[in-house]
Design goal:
Layout lengths: L1 H24 L10 H7 L6 H6 L4 H13 L9 H12 L21 H7 L6 H6 L4 H13 L6 H15 L1 H7 L1
């Protein structure tokens, strides 16, 4: 009986070794750098890596996100907050390319705020997201306000110009009249 148990235990250990070896061979979506281990451990307790690596926020946006997650239970100590924010900003900040994503060249519609959209929104998002999305002006206003809250570099006047431009060129009514 003892031999059977010993054999089963060894088989289980070998099986665990196979699975842990397989997962260790998978590439991490988190690039190397100070703070990586904190993010890889604390953030993935609740989230898959996908949503994290797809965001592009500046220092203020990531800091707000980290504090929000700490309030929700993320296990990040006070001494690790700055390293976590610095890592997220360096690895997934404005202008950092998305992994395995081909660059798509997009020509925005002419307009007074096209340069603001290209220069500001294009820091974090591919412009293909802008031209593919059809929203009414109220929805664009909410999107722009949300982006400013996570660090988009626009003042109130620029935000109004962007909302008007997006509503005129990429609004729900534009799609309806095109049919």
């Amino acid at each position: 009986m003892r031999q059977i148990f010993k054999g089963a235990a060894m088989g289980g250990l070998m099986l665990c070794g196979l699975f842990s070896g397989a997962s260790a061979q998978q590439a991490s979506p988190f690039p190397d750098g100070p703070g990586r281990d904190i993010v890889a451990t604390a953030c993935t307790q609740c989230h898959a890596p996908g949503p994290i690596v797809q965001l592009r926020m500046n220092d203020a946006g990531w800091r707000k996100q980290v504090y929000n997650m700490i309030l929700r239970g993320a296990q990040i100590g006070p001494g690790d907050i700055d390293a976590t924010v610095a890592y997220l900003t360096a690895s997934f900040g404005p202008g950092v390319a998305f992994p395995n994503t081909p660059k798509v060249d997009v020509k925005l519609a002419d307009g007074a705020a096209a340069n603001l959209v290209e220069g500001g929104c294009g820091l974090c998002h591919g412009l293909d997201r802008v031209v593919a999305t059809k929203r009414d002006p109220h929805q664009w206003d909410a999107v722009v306000a949300r982006m400013i809250s996570v660090g988009a570099p626009f003042d109130a006047d620029q935000a109004k110009q962007i909302v008007a431009y997006l509503g005129q060129n990429y609004g729900a009514q534009v799609e309806a009249t095109a049919k």
